Each structure stands twice: as C-alpha cells, then as structure tokens.
Amino acid sequence: MVFTLAFTGLVTAFMMTLLTPLVPSLPAILNVSAEDSQWAVTVTLLAAAVATPIAGRLGDLYGKRRMVLILLVLVLAGSVVAFFADGLLPLIVGRALQGAGIGVIPLGISILRDVLHRDRLGGAVALVSATLGVGGAVGLPVAAAISQYLDWHFLFVLSGLLAAVGFVLVLVFIPVSTLRASGTFDVLGAIGLGVALVGILLGISKGNSWGWDSPLTLGCLGGGLLVLLAWGVFERRISSPLIDLRVAARRTVLLTNLASVTVGFAFFASTVVLPQLLEAPPETGVGLGQPMLVASLCLMPSGLVMWAMSPLATRLTRARGARTSLVLGIAVIAVAYLIAVFLMTEIWHMVLIATAVGAGVGFAYAAMPTLIMAAVPATETAASNSLNSVMRTLGSTLASAVLGVVLASHLIGSGETATPSSDGFQLAFIISGAAAVAGVLIAVFIPRHHRAYTKASLPDADDTRAADLSKAGDR
C-alpha cells in the first residue's frame, strides 16, 4: 500500500514538470507567441490549486480511494488529449486534466492514516509527502531526454502509461475507504474557492507579462481577494463547509500552512533559478553553458536526497516532534541559499545547492502532514492536507512571479544571448533565503504541545496519554 501511494504520488508530481524542458520551444512547436504558449504551463498550476481541495473534501465524504482512482483517470484522459494535440487549445485542455491529478498526494497521505498502524505511519507519510518534490526533480531529466531525442508527443505516452499503472495498483492494493465524513458536498463553496484561487494565482503568475499595474492583473488579484473574503464568510455560516475554517484557524494548522507557503516558495525557487544559471551561455560571463539534459541531471540529486531524508525526518519527528523537523528543514534551505550567494560559478556549486535545498525540503515536507493531522478531526484529514498542498502551490506561484521580475530586471547581453546578470542571480538567492528565514520564524511559534484532542486524525503521544488518564478517571 505504501509503495502504491508513493508511486501514484510520483506519477502525478511528474505531471507538474512534464513540459518544463519544452518551454523554450513551445512557441515554434505550436506556432503561437511565447506569452500564449505559457498557458500550457500555467493551466496545470491553476487546475492543481483548484482541484486539490475539492478532491480532498470529496474524498472525506465519499471515499479517498475512489477519488484517487478518479484523479488518475483524469491524468490518463489528459495524456490522451495532449498526445493528439497539434495546437495550443487541446494541449491546454490536456494539461489542465493532468494538473488535477496532483490531489492524489494529500489523498494518499490521508489513506495512510486510515490503513496503517501508528508506529509505521510517520515514515510512510514522510515518504509519500516527499513525492511532491521527488516526482518533479527525478522526472525532469526523463522529460528532457524525451524532448531532446524523440517527438514531444511521446511525453504523453509516458505519462498515460504511468497513470494507467497507478490506477491498476490502487485498484488492487488499496482497500475501500471506510472512514467517511458526514454532511453534503458544498457546491457553492467549491465554485467560490475555485474562482478566488484562479483569480489570485492567475494575477500572480501572469503579472510579469500583463504588467503589475494593468487593469487585467489588478482585476484578477482584487477580484480573487474579494471572492475569497466572501467565500470565508459563507463557509463559516453553513453546516457542511468545503473547508472548516474553524479547524483551519487552529494555531498549529494555521502556522503550518503559512510555513508551507515559504517552503513552496523556496523549493520552487531552485527549479526557477538554477536551470537558468546552468543553461545560460558562458559568453555573458555568468552562465555555465550546459544543455537542457545536463541541467536537468544536475537538479535530479535534489529529488533523490529529498526521498533519502524521509526516514531521518521520521526518526527526528519521533524523538523531538514534527515542529523540530520542520524548523530544521527550513533552516537547511536558508543556509543553502546563503551558500548560493557566494558559490555560483561551477556546475558542482549548482549540484550542491540543489542537493542541500532538497534535503531541507525533505525534512519540511515530512513534518507538515504530521503537524496537520495531529490537529484536525479524522473525518477532515483529506480536506486539511489538501489545503496544505494548496498553500505550497501558492508559495510556488509567488516564487515564479517574484523571481521572474528579479531576473528579468537584471539582464546583460542582447538578443538571444541576453541572460540575468550575476547581481540578478544573487538577489534571487537572497530573496529565496529570506523566504526560508521567514518560514523558520513562523515555524518556531507552532505549539510544541496542543490541548488534548482525542478525536485528532493523528493524536500525539501527549494527547494519547491524556485520553488514557481521562478514561482511567471515568472508570
């Protein structure tokens, strides 16, 4: 069961970076402008952000296994549509369907809570949580190799086969969900949250190309925030909300989600900045002049070490608590970017930085689901983990927008040889490190122990002892 859920997590995470190596070539391939071609990437992010919390709530209500199977079918359908795509519109549709599949990861973590013994749960959660980063980092060189040596449509043959294998594994090895939440699905809440997230994320992700002071950008951001506020008021007044904001406002959940934004920012920064530095032409005196495939291989250790950190993070969490693991992980990321400011002139520098960031993310990703599940009811595990995943996505979107502005405003050279300057890369590393430092400051305020909550999805040792003492007193 652990292998199956880890595999499906890797498959769906791979969808997020599937087209990354093709981004520079998409305008020529699809015969569209560079700005229009970006929609094939942006739509995947938007679909993931919108579908993840909806899939989480549906999983709590109607069965997590069932929703995992549905999401894998969507990934398979998206692969088929994209395989036959010769234009931008069908490719966007296919990529949107693939992006919806990222909700498999928080659902998988929630399934583990239902089917595993407590003693094995921590390591399994850490492993599956890490797949969010591992799938992208390890899949990147695979996608680069296919893009470089085969027709780009074969990317979707691979993604479709992986989704089909994952579907069969889940069907065979994952038991039917028996723990269900009461209530009904909040359709209006789902629509409201979807509109709000699309508006906010679209404004952030397209602000660089549209202009941050353009009516379109301001309209998306302002409209998204207004809808989000109205959605929050609505959710607090209904009996069966999409996301229980009273649970989300608990100190442990709230601070963990805020820290998740900084982790998402810092991790995505490495996938934005390091490839540009590796692939930039050396004639400018900044770039390392590596081909796409080599640059992808340089980032692969980040994913591998992220996975390797899972058992270490589990041991640390058992010994010192999940908060300690989260603080340590984000601190490692901050140190990695501090080193990057001074070491950015050799290929091994990039490998070192990517590996250090991956190690830190491995500790952080392992800790966040554990913190969330210790503070939410068992019937809201999937919805709460899905919200945490959305917060990571928000951080990634912010990183893409902020660092895009920074690098674009520090160009040297001209024409096709224009590349960010050394100062631009250093500033990007400083901003990424500052985001990690902010994450550490947030994480240290997460309560080390919380009030005994005997219906927690994953009660900690202190809560379990409190419940046992309460029962003994009753007897």
Q: How does this structure look, described?
A:
The protein is mostly helical. The chain has two domains: 2-185 and 240-469, Growth Hormone, Chain: A (Up-down Bundle), CATH 1.20.1250; 186-239. Helix content is 77%, strand content 1%. The protein contains 19 helices and two strands. The chain has helices at 2-16, 26-30, 34-37, 39-62, 64-83, 88-100, 104-115, 118-149, 154-173, 187-210, 215-237, 245-248, 251-279, 292-320, 322-342, 347-373, 381-408, 422-443, 461-474, and strands at 411-412, 419-420. Strands 1-2 form a two-stranded antiparallel sheet. A hairpin with a 6-residue loop joins strand 1 and strand 2. Helix 4 runs parallel beside helix 6, helix 7 runs antiparallel to helix 8 and helix 14 (292-320) runs antiparallel to helix 15. The radius of gyration is 22 Å and the shape is globular. The two termini are 38 Å apart. Mean pLDDT is 85; it is low at 456-475. Residues 1-451 form the Major facilitator superfamily (MFS) profile domain. Its main location: membrane. The chain crosses the membrane at residues 37-55, 67-85, 91-112, 124-146, 152-173, 185-204, 216-234, 254-273, 293-314, 326-345, 351-378, 390-412, 424-446. It comes from Herbiconiux oxytropis. It is found in: Cell membrane.
